[in-house]
Amino acid sequence: MTHNPITQEIREIRHQLAAQQGNDIHRIGDELRRRQMESGRRIVRLPKREPDVPSLNTRMHGIGGETVNASTESTPSVG
Q1: Structural domain contains residue 9
Q2: Does 72 reside within a domain?
Q3: What is the pTM of this model?
Q4: Is residue 67 part of a domain?
Q5: What CA–CA distance (Å, rounded) separates 1 from 5?
Q6: Which of 9, 54, 56, 79 is the most exposed place for a label (fewest CB within 10 A)?
Q7: What are the backbone angles phi and psi of residue 39, rounded to the nearest 5°?
Q8: pLDDT tens digits, 5-64
């Protein structure tokens, strides 16, 4: 594996910032949000995207919550 000094520097900074917050993910998130607000930069929040295809969960449970047996789903007949 090639040693990339930029990647190494980013990892070191990430570890330092996490250690300052006791490696607590909630404290890290709070600190990042605080820094964003103090930066004065415009923060863009994109709307939630819905998948283009139904999820496996939707296909397995059908519409309205009824369970569909995957082995009995209709498949095109070969013939």
Answers
A1: yes
A2: no
A3: 0.48
A4: no
A5: 13
A6: 79
A7: -70, -25
A8: 999 999 999 999 999 999 999 999 999 999 999 999 988 888 998 877 766 666 666 555
